Amino acid sequence: MKQLLLTAFRAFSGLAWHRLEKSLEQPRKTQLKTLQRLLKQANLNQPISEYQAFSQLPLQTYEDLEPQIQAAIQTQTNWLSRQKPFTHEPTSGSSGAKKLIPYTPALIRSFTELFLCWAHDLLSYGPKLTGGRLYFSVSPQFHDTEYGLADDSEYLSGPTAWLFRQFALVPPSVKALRKPEDFLRVVSAHLLSADDLEVISVWSPSFLISLLDYIQTHPLELAQALEQSQVSGGGRTFALSRPKPGKIKALKAKDFTSQTLFPGLKLISCWGSHNAAIGWRELQSRFPGVLVQAKGLLATEAPLTLPSEKYQSFLPLINQVFFEFIDQQGKVLLIEQLQKGETYELVLTQASGLLRYRLGDLIKVTGKVKNTPCFDFVSRAGALSDLVGEKLSEAFIAEIAAAHFPQSYFCLVPDLQTRHYLLFSSEALDSSGLEAALMHSPHYHNAIKLKQLMPLEHHIVPDLNKRLKDYFVTVKAMRRGDIKDRYLYNNENNGQLSQFLKG
Asked: How many CA atoms lie within 13 A of 233 on its CB side?
C-alpha cells in the first residue's frame, strides 16, 4: 500500500518540480511575477505592483517590525498580510532574543512547495526509496510557550500533510516532553523500533549524533522497551513496534553497528554548512552507504533553497520568495545580477507579509542552474566582534576554518572584561596556527601587536557541541532547533558563555 502511495506522490510532486525547473529558465520574469503575487497578499497602505516602486520601501529587520507584530497579536488587527496568521512561530538568533514570525496559509503553501520539489528530486534522482518509515525531527522545547506549530507536519498543507503522516514514525506528542532525558529515550526507542526506517531528516547533525550517543550508552534500557513494545517518558507511555529479534539481541550484547540498528536507512538530511560540516562528515563516516544530504537554506521566515541530486546544487525557490541581495558596496541587486564567487547579504520578501526583510545571512554564489544563480550559506551578516577595534568577522574565521581546519570543531568567544578571545575546541588544535591565520586581518594584527588584545586562550572541551547546546537551552531558553553552530559567538562577550564552557 505504501509503495502505491509513494508512486502516486512522485507523480503529484512532479507538478511542483516542473514548475520550479521552468522558473529557473527565466529568473527575472519569474521573480517579478512572484513579487506581484506577494505584494497582493501584503497589507500595504497603498497598492504597489512594480519593482521600481517596491524598491523605494525601506529595508527592514525584525526589530523594525516587532512593534507592529506585537501590536497585531494584542489587537488581532493590522497584520502584515491580508491573511490572518494562524500562529506565530518563535525563532531566535544566538543572542537568544525571541522573534515571532507570522505564519499564514500562504506561507505554509510555500513550505509545502519546497517539500514537494525536494521529495520529487529525491524520488527521481536519489536513493531508491520503497515506502518505509521516515523521521522528521520535532524540535524539542524544554520550556513552555504559547506560540508555534504543534509539530513539523504543520509546515505542510493539504494532501501533502496527510501523506506525510502516513509515513511518519515518531508521534507529534513527543514535543510535549520537557526533560531532555525523556525526549532522547522516547525518540531513540521509536527509531530503533522500525526496521523499515528509510529517511531521517533533522536540522543539526549534532542532534542526530546525540541520539546515537544515547543509544550507545543506554542499550539495555532501550532493549527492554523494545521487548515490551512501549517506552515511557514525562508521565506518558508510547506504543512501539517490535523490531526483529536480532536487533534486540545486539543491544543486549552491546555489540551493534549503525547498519545493525538501522538496516533500511537510505537518506539522512541535515544542515551541512559552516561549523555543522564537522558533524555532517561524522554522520557520513557512521553511515557508509547512506546518502547524507546537506540541507538547503531553510529559515523560520521562509523556505529559500533546496538541495538537488539532479543538479548537485542548491536551487533557489524563486517562484515562492522574492530575493534581493546587498553587495559589499551596499548596492541592492536582483538574482540575475549575481556573480559567481561573490558574497552577498540576503534580503527576502515572503508570503506572510515580510517585505524587504534582512534575514541576517550572508550567501556565496556557487554557479548557475539553467539561467539562475545558485548560492550557499556563508555566515551570519553582522557577526562581527570588536572589543578594541579588531573588527573580527565570523565570515573571516569561516574562511580560515575551511582552508586550514576543515576537520576541527571549534569556536571563538570574546571576553569584553579581559579583552581577549577564548578558543574552544572539541579536541587538540593548532592554536598558534589559528592565531597566525587571524593575524592576516590588519585590525586584529595591530590589536595583538599593540597589546590591546591578548593572544588566544585555548581550552579543549571534548563535549563542546553538547555544552554549547546546553548553554543556549538552559541559560538563553532557546529551542534546540533554533541553535545554529557558529565559529564566533560575538554577542556572548560578557564572560557567561566562557565560564559555562570551562565548567
From this structure: 25
Question: Which candidate, 169, 166, 235, 239, places its Cα nearest to that of 202?
Answer: 169
**Under 8 Å between Cβ of 352 and 85:** yes
Residue 484 DSSP one-character state? -
- Residue 463 cell numbers, joined: 563535549
Sign of CA dihedral 40, 42, 48, 52: negative
Calpha distance 144→130 (Å, rounded)? 38
pTM of the model: 0.82
SS (H, E, C) 420-431: EEEEEECCCCCH
Q: Strand, coil or helix: what is 62?
A: helix
Return d(Cα 462, Cα 89) in angstroms, integer.
Answer: 33
* 206/274 Cα distance (integer angstroms): 13
CB 334 within 8 A of CB 39: no
Residues 455-488: tens digit of each pLDDT: 999 999 999 988 998 999 888 888 776 677 889 9
Count the Cβ atoms, other than its own, within 10 Å of residue 7: 12
Tens digits of per-residue pLDDT, 306-363?
999 999 999 999 999 999 999 999 999 999 999 999 999 999 999 999 999 999 899 9
Cα 357 from chain centroid (whole Å): 18
Other residues' Cβ atoms within 10 Å of the Cβ of residue 283:
21
Residues 6+ apart with CB under 8 A from 103: 85, 86, 87, 88, 89, 149, 352
State how far the Cα of 193 lies from the Cα of 243, in Å rounded to an integer.
5
Question: Beta strand pairing status for 267-270 and 291-294?
Answer: parallel
Task: Copy the grid coordinates of residue 490.
Answer: 560575538
Burial class (CB in 10 A: 0-12, 13-18, 19+), 105: middle
